Give the backbone structure.
Amino acid sequence: MFNKILIANRGEIACRVIKTARKMGIQTVAIYSDADKQALHVKMADEAVHIGPPPANQSYIVIDKVMDAIRETGAQAVHPGYGFLSENSKFAEALEAEGVAFVGPPKGAIKAMGDKITSKKIAQEAGVSTVPGYMGLIEDADEAVKISNEIGYPVMIKASAGGGGKGMRIAWTDEEAREGFQSSKNEAANSFGDDRIFIEKFVTQPRHIEIQVLCDAHGNGVYLGERECSIQRRNQKVVEEAPSPFLDEATRKAMGEQAVALAKAVGYTSAGTVEFIVDGSKNFYFLEMNTRLQVEHPVTELITGVDLVEQMIRVANGEPLSMTQDDVKLTGWAIENRLYAEDPYRGFLPSIGRLTRYRPPAEIAAGPLLVNDKWQGKAPSGAAAVRNDTGVFEGGEISMYYDPMIAKLCTWAPTREQAIEAMRVALDSFEVEGIGHNLPFLSAVMDHPKFISGDMTTAFIAEEYPEGFEGVTLDEDDLRRVAAAAAAMYRVAEIRRTRVSGRMDNHERHVGSEWVVLLQGHSFPVTVEADHDGSTVVFKDGGKLRITSDWTPGDSLARLDIDGEPLVLKVGKATGGYRLRTRGADLKVQVFSPRQAELAALMPEKLPPDTSKMLLCPMPGLVVKVDVEVGQEVQEGQALCTIEAMKMENILRAEKKAIVTKINAGAGDSLAVDEVIMEFE
């Protein structure tokens, strides 16, 4: 077995590989750019080597710099993670020439299947059903428009070397095809150093389901079930689960066998993923093969008990697989939510800054049990697992240079319903401050009827949130639960306040029992009847809720039991009450005495400033280009400028017809969030 492995990556996947290597007794080497000097993966590794400036094309994807780090440290093998150099055949060739093992497939398989154009041609030759498209290289935007018309709109414009949603656009018109081609080409060049583009038919109402395969160099191959990845935004996965709530055993077997056959046809070894589009009749079409470890691999590990990183290392060491297809059993259900540094209230645009608070929920080990790759049973009924793969820490910086994903929160339970409920509690328990993040949106998805039923497609987010995400409006039952919790918590805080002030000897006797809780446009007059074990909150209509909790004033997280049901609240102090966040709702909660409530109702509402005649920068980023000039009349939907952040280009468009009166920024300028780019009349 190898003594030392270099991880040619960063962030959570580098940390993930280090954990398994450490378990196997293998030393690890991290590489880092200037921006990652204090990163978690650098702290976790046994050694670390600096490789250059922050941009990936000057550090992480420069093969010569990575090779220098390998020589300097004497690493015997390299795990590429995903993205960066993971599907670069030239990197695999360089490692082979150096006599260093690549923890991944052979260079020939990477070249054949890692390139999306070549892989589709091979799949077609092998008789695999594929989505209609143009497999040749596309030279310019005019040709892209011509091909799009021949295929028929809508079309998907994709980077040949792409992945992770980078370099992908859906076009419904000639104009969108022209714009999408150039943006995809730019993103592909910046992210992968390869700007080749191809176009294929965009299948409407599809489900995105992928098969995990594992092959060795001795002719053995297995599939480890499927992952449902249909909930996507901008072609980037947000929520994944395993198994899929849609597939039956016959379809799973057919897809799995086809995936393994395709892998064997190109001499594939290591872990890989074959992606399919599946229609409502369970017809499936090959999309591409990712010749690397997938971001969403933890859900497969949780339902199979197989450590995929360990298997990759063992295969790279020349070992045969220690399992057969009959050994692979799917137990329970696993769900993964990707925590992104992005603001869901601003169209999910990237957010950067310092993590002033980062407290993931406690990880809980449970799930299927494998010993030496042989089944030893499963977790007890009702047990649940919580896993958080992350590459950040409290006080660390979220950089503008890399992907905005900062953690992958996973839960496992014996049933899908239990896994969803475990995820709801885990999301409510996840504390992140200092940056915009998508935790509220993820909570909303977990409560959405379509997700709960398993009836979703890749258009889920576009269809269910067409105007973007504006937060969650809780129903009255949930509001009553939050109101009761707030009243009980406020009473505890008042007791603490009177005790600290020293104004009263018998402070509890002098703290009122009648309160009015205001939240989300509702008013709840309540009476709090306290005893040594908790409180009973009585509503004006006679309804009662029993509350117990060990929360104390100042705690940022409150775990309560309300009539036997759990409620987790993120708690922030606010004038006259709290800022409470739960189940995707962000609530300003005020707790008043009855007289205070009467007076508060008379106060005028403060109106926000008028920014309707300004284009504000929605996230920190770099101006790529400005498409208009002073004095120009712009129409609704017209492109105004392009902002690049976290490797993604974002085109800002006019919301209505207007005349540009002032432009405050130009190409190359770095802007902060809400900085005024241009003004209108």
The radius of gyration is 27 Å. Residues 476-501 form the longest helix (26 residues).
